[in-house]
Amino acid sequence: MPSINLFDIIALLWFLSCWIIYAGVADCRGLTSSSLMQATHAYRELWMQRMLKRDNRIIDSNLVGHLIGNVSFFASTTM
């Protein structure tokens, strides 16, 4: 069984401290500025309001189908 030396402990502590600091900064920043999800939500609401005013919704259904395909492709490539 390999032994843990001082450099391994320092590297682990550095990694954990960076992780904790990054998580704190990301949480605080998310409260003050808009995120990608908030901007996407605003565009979707606007799109849905405009969609209700149109008669032909075939294009909208095609767009939803493409969005679902793109999201599943993005999720599979991210994994």
Approximate helicity band: over 70%
- Helix run count: 3
Largest sheet: none
**What integer value in Å does the Rg equal?**
22 Å
Mean pLDDT: 80
Total number of beta strands:
0
Strand content: under 5%
Distance between the termini: 32 Å
Sum up the overall morphology in one term.
elongated
Derived from helix and strand composition plus strand pairing, the structural class reads: mainly alpha
Note the run of SSEs as H and E. Answer: HHH
The count of domains is 1
Low-confidence runs = none
Outline the structure in words.
This protein has 79 residues and is mostly helical. It has three helices and no strands. The longest helix has 27 residues, at 6-32. The chain is elongated and about 70 Å long. The mean pLDDT is 80.
Helices, strands, pairings?
Blueprint: H1 6-32, H2 36-52, H3 58-78
Summarize the structure.
The chain is built from 3 helices and no strands. By secondary structure, it is an all-alpha fold.
Keywords:
single chain, 79 residues, mainly alpha, 3 helices, 82% helix
